[in-house]
Structures are given as structure tokens and as C-alpha cells.
Amino acid sequence: MPETGEAELDAKYQRLPARVRQQVEAHLAHSATTMKIVVGQTFADRDVLNAHAVESAGRTGLKSGQVSELTVIAPLKPNGAKRLRTLFAILDGNFAGASLVGTVHDMRFVLLDNDTRLLFCTAYDGEWDPYIDDFATKIPDLMDYIFGNVEGWPGIHSPQVKDFIASIQVGASGWFVANPQLTVAEQARLLEQDKNVTSFVQKLN
Questions:
Q1: Taking Cα atoms as reference points, which of 45, 46, 63 lies closest to residue 54?
Q2: CA–CA separation, 198 vs 73, rounded Å?
Q3: pLDDT > 90: what percent of the chain?
């Protein structure tokens, strides 16, 4: 007769290696069995765990493989949200211009707390300092227009700008990247390669 419910879950948990169960019990003794299984399976697959290892992105933030994260929460100047909403509306919410930086995987802007604070999140290649330098050299005007609405923004070319960004950055406590070794440039190369192969195959047919 097949095991069901909690008995089935417990049997699945018990099939994990003893060393893994020991680690899980040390931290999640009072958690649900389903949670123990998810965490235990992650511990058990060392290759997956190593491939997604997390380290410092440099000055602040986390990095997995080639990809780092940056999250900023900052107070807005009076009417700052209004100016930002106007910009977002003009662009239809599309910040394709950020592709000029060359290392940006994604970015998002969210207005919080009755339009009094800005949340900015991004994933990027490499480490923190070169990333900020890329913004300063490749899209400085856009950076100043957006963050000029933030209280205390010194200007993208100011010697104090990195200290300012670090002061409003909120480091992630956890970070996951599906393909941590794929940079933006590598993704573009693979897409182009796939397109060429597909075209070649179609011509053969």
C-alpha cells in the first residue's frame, strides 16, 4: 500500500543523506517536513550548490557566478515622484536605453509609501565599483535625471556618488541566479549563434 501524506513526506526526508539531515535539523528542527525536504535537497546536490555559490559583489551587495545584485531604497524630493512618473509614462515603462551600459541584466523602479520613496533594483555583471563607473560613463544624463529626484543625490560625476549610493543600498540576504555564469555579452553571443544555426538548418531543408 503506498505511503501518503506526512508518512510519505517523512520517508522522503529520511532518504536524504544523514549528514544533510543533520545540517537541516540544526537550523530547521521545528519547520514543516516539506521545508526540510526542499532545503535538504539543495544541500544534497553539491554541484548545484557550488554552481550557485554566493559571495560579495565588492563594496556591497551579493554576487553569484558572474551576476551581482543591487537594491536601493531612497527618499524622494518634493514632486520627485511626479517627475519620475512623467518620465516612465513617456518611455512607456521601457528602459531599453540601459542596454548601452552593456552589463545590465534587468532593472526596475518602484515608487513606495505614497510616492515618498524610490525602490531601484538591478542585476548586473561583475563587481560593484566597475558597474557604477559604467553608469557614469555611458548613461550619465539619465542617471542624473532619475536620481536627481532623490534627496541628497550629489550628481553622477561627483567624487561622493559611490559613497552616497552605498549609503542607500540595501544588501540582499539571499541571492539566486538561474544561470550565474552567463553574462549579458555571453547571452547575446549564444542567441546570435542559435539564430545562425537555425537559419543554416532551415536553408538545408
A1: 63
A2: 44
A3: 61
Nearest to 104 by CA among 95, 113, 112, 117: 95
Sequence-distant (6+) residues with CB within 8 A of 184 are 102, 103, 104, 105, 125
pTM for this model (two decimals): 0.75
Q: Give dist(CA 179, CA 186) in Å, integer.
A: 11
* SS3 per-residue string spanning 116-130: CEEEEEEEEECCHHH
Amino acid, single-letter form, for residue 6: E
SS3 of residue 115 by DSSP:
coil
State whether residue 76 is helix, strand or coil. strand
Give per-residue pLDDT as tens, 68-121: 999 999 999 999 999 999 999 999 999 998 999 999 999 999 999 999 999 999
C-alpha cell at 51: 554552481
Instruction: For each of the domains in the chain, give its residue range(s) and CATH number, in order of start.
Output: 5-51 (no CATH), 54-168 (3.30.70)
Residues 177, 63: Cα–Cα separation, whole Å: 9
